Amino acid sequence: MRGFPVTPVLRLAFGLALAPLAWVGSAQAADQVTVMADACAGCHGTDGHSIGGMPGFSGKKADELKKVLHDFKSGAREATVMDRIAKAYSVQQLDAIADYFASRKK
Ligand code: HEC
Predict the structure, then answer these.
(1) Looking at residue 34, what is its pLDDT?
(2) Do residues 36 and 89 touch, judged by C-beta distance below 8 A?
(3) Which distant-in-sequence residues (6+ apart) come within 8 Å of 87 by Cβ?
(4) Spatial distance between the Cα atoms of 98 and 64, rounded to a whole number of angstroms
(5) How far is the CA of 44 from the centre of ligand 1 (A)?
(6) Whose CA is nearest to atom 39 of ligand 1?
(7) How many angstroms is it from 16 CA to the middle of ligand 1?
(8) Would you state the pLDDT for residue 31?
(9) Mean of per-residue pLDDT scores for the chain
(10) d(CA 3, CA 7)
(11) For the segment 35-57, what is each residue's pLDDT rounded down to a tens digit?
């Protein structure tokens, strides 16, 4: 193992071990929700204000959005793409996304 760069490897391992701590603060948690919500904007428009043929959901309440997203995830509601998208998130993440959109400008 002569010449093996131990220090950078240790630094990397230490860095990765600490990375999850970055999500502990609530400011970071809010940032994480906006990042997730940005992934929806490509199709549904900013804050759910759809332009074009996509269904918008800017006027929906948090509970309605949660129900729809849970139903997409479970398959109870038929979809072309939203079932796969909803499955990519945990229920907690979907709820956070729903709360975020419901709190945005109507
Ligand atoms: C690739 C484009 C695309 C992305 C990205 C996307 N959606 Fe959708 N969404 C759709 C389509 C298309 C529908 C209509 C149902 C279907 O066919 O899947 C839909 C339907 C919905 C509906 C139901 C609206 C209604 O009134 O019927 C909600 C709520 C919704 N999406 C929320 C979201 C959220 C939240 C995200 C981000 C996590 C998201 N969508 C990301 C394409 C997308």
Answers:
(1) 92
(2) yes
(3) 73
(4) 9
(5) 7
(6) 40
(7) 33
(8) 83
(9) 84
(10) 11
(11) 999 999 999 998 999 888 888 89
Residue of the CA atom closest to atom 38 of ligand 1: 40
CB atoms within 10 A of CB 106: 9
| CA-proximal residue: ligand 1, atom 36 (nearest) | 40
Ligand 1 geometric centre to CA of 20 (Å): 29
Question: Tokens 């229920």 belong to which residue?
Answer: 91
Beta-carbon contacts of residue 52 (< 8 Å; ≥ 6 apart) = none
Write 25-32 long-range contacts (CB < 8 A, 24+): 29/96
Does the Cβ of 79 fall within 6 Å of ligand 1?
yes
Count CB neighbours of 103 within 10 A.
10
CB atoms inside a 10 Å sphere around CB 46: 14
Indicate the residue type of 25.
G
Indicate if the pLDDT at residue 67 is higher than 60: yes
